[in-house]
Design brief:
It contains 11 helices and 14 strands. With about 350 residues, the chain is an alpha/beta fold. It has 2 domains: about 60 residues, Phospho-2-dehydro-3-deoxyheptonate aldolase, domain 1 (Alpha-Beta Plaits), CATH 3.30.70.1140; about 250 residues, Aldolase class I (TIM Barrel, Alpha-Beta Barrel), CATH 3.20.20.70. The strands form 3 sheets. The chain has an 8-stranded parallel β-barrel, surrounded by 7 helices. A 4-stranded antiparallel sheet has the order 2-3-1-4, covered by helices on one side. The two termini are about 40 Å apart.
């Protein structure tokens, strides 16, 4: 429910309403505008009729229902766009479009450090690399685990880049949070609700990838799980969905960008590497994503894709990555953004 306070409501009246919301078993989310304050009351929907009684409190103008199932992620409670500061001045959702780049997997110290140096030179501000890798086959390379995280930390020391890496299970959240600036939830874990609640209890930015065959509404409800735990720093990542088409690895749903801009205040990042599965298509889809309004890109880049331990076919060489960024700057400028 939304509690709309009267114009000029006193601070005590607002505080009293928040206290009453807590007493009723809900969590208040106040939004203080220039003219008036609106308080979201989030919690168990079964007792929402009781919240209507808040209209009797001093300073309350009216109580209205939030119609969308995603209360915190939706635009009914928060109209303005969310800006997420990941550190070092890297902000998702602002005018400048950050680029996350790096190899699919951390394969060794020199490999990840070299990758970091090369993507930084090409224009990236965040280094990606998987220390834990969810793979379809149990016989495929699964990642270097904590050793991989330590290698990412060393790459960060050498380059100054922020680190984005995936967390796959609830038990690893605390460990990954020690090393990562952005905690990534992969497509296969988009509806791993215990994991979502666990990262929601941290205060690290979370890059939430869309599931292989999930609707936008289901995706936003997964974001809601994270936000309901108090972590509002969620970045959505469109990475392609599974359709009947086999010419590409997935079907990159660029329709999702304008739809999400209408439905949510959260920033939207696009992953054209997983979205296509072929390096030849990555540049075109990256440029199209920026033109459609994406707030960031995540690109797989490997110093030598032919020798990559995973996803080499969709990885750009450092030279191709640099060329992509130069073109992306021109597209960004054309739509009033910067890279």
């Amino acid at each position: 429910m939304l509690v709309v306070m009267q114009l000029g409501a006193a601070k005590k009246e607002i505080a009293d309403v928040e206290s009453e919301i807590v007493r009723m078993g809900y969590t208040p989310h106040p939004i203080r505008g220039v003219e008036r304050t609106v308080i979201g009351a989030i919690g168990d929907e079964r007792g929402k009729a009781r919240l209507q009684a808040l209209e009797t409190l001093p300073g309350v103008e009216r109580v209205i229902p939030i119609l969308k199932p995603y209360k915190l992620a939706g635009r009914e409670l928060r109209k303005e766009k969310t800006h997420i500061d990941a550190g070092n001045g890297v902000i998702f959702g602002g005018k400048r479009i950050p680029i996350i780049a790096g190899p699919c997997s951390v394969e060794g110290l020199e490999q990840i450090c070299l990758a970091g140096e090369l993507v930084k030179r090409g224009g990236a501000t965040v280094l990606r690399g998987g220390a834990y890798k969810p793979r379809t086959s149990p016989y495929s390379f699964q990642g270097l685990a904590e050793e991989g995280l330590k290698m990412l930390r060393e790459a960060q020391k050498r380059t100054g880049l922020l680190i984005d890496t995936e967390v796959m299970k609830e038990a690893a959240v605390e460990l990954v949070a020690e090393y990562a600036d952005i905690m990534q939830i992969g497509a296969r874990n988009m509806q791993n609700y215990d994991l979502l609640k666990a990262v929601g209890q941290t205060r690290k930015p979370v890059l939430l990838k869309r599931g292989l065959a999930n609707t936008i509404s289901e995706w936003l409800m997964s974001a809601e799980y994270i936000m309901s735990q108090g972590n509002m720093q969620v970045i959505l990542c469109e990475r392609g969905i599974r359709t009947f088409e086999t010419a590409t690895r997935n079907t990159l749903d660029l329709n999702a960008i304008p739809v999400l801009k209408r439905e949510t205040h959260l920033p939207v990042v696009v992953d054209p590497s997983h979205g296509t599965g072929h390096w030849e298509y990555v540049e075109d889809m990256a440029l199209a994503a920026i033109a459609a309004g994406a707030d960031g890109l995540i690109i797989e880049v490997h110093p030598n894709p032919q020798e990559a331990w995973s996803d080499g076919a969709q990885s750009l060489t450092p030279e191709r990555f640099s060329a992509l960024v130069e073109k992306a700057r021109k597209v960004a400028a054309a739509v009033g953004r910067e890279i």
